[in-house]
Amino acid sequence: MGLATLEILEFVFVALLISFTVTQVIWPIVRGTALCPLFRRRSRELERELIQAGEDVQTKEYTQQIARRREEAARLDRSAEEIRRQAAKPPTYPDWP
């Protein structure tokens, strides 16, 4: 039983070694990505944080643009209302001598 257990462990070890080599070395080389992606989890987390921060900045910029456009629209509405009021007034003519 001891010899069979060692053969099974040897098979499992070789299978894990082949699996690791394929997934961490060969497949990244074929895809053109960094080797050993298993060990780069922290960099992936940082990359996600960077992407999220960029999205947050973009959201704030969009919010500011929306606020500026709403202010501009309100200003134009006030200008248009003032023009309508002035157009609705009857014209006044100077006194003729």
Total of helices: 2
Overall domain count: 2
User: Which bin fits the share of residues in helices?
Assistant: over 70%
Order of secondary-structure elements:
HH
Distance between the termini: 130 Å
User: What is the CA-atom radius of gyration, in angstroms?
Assistant: 36 Å
Instruction: Profile the largest sheet.
Output: none
- Classification by helices and strands: mainly alpha
Shape: rod-shaped
Calculate the mean pLDDT score and round it.
86
Q: How much of the residues is beta strand, in percent? A: under 5%
Got a strand count?
0
Query: In terms of per-residue confidence, which ranges show pLDDT below 50 for 5 or more consecutive residues?
Result: none
Task: Please describe what this structure looks like.
- The protein is rod-shaped.
- The longest helix has 48 residues.
- The chain contains two helices and no strands.
- The mean pLDDT is 86.
- By secondary structure, it is mostly helical.
- The protein has two domains: 35 residues; 48 residues.
Keywords:
single chain, 97 residues, mainly alpha, 2 helices
Break the fold down into its secondary structure elements and pairings.
Layout: H1 2-31, H2 41-88
TL;DR of this structure?
Helices cover 80% and strands 0% of the residues. The chain is mainly alpha-helical.
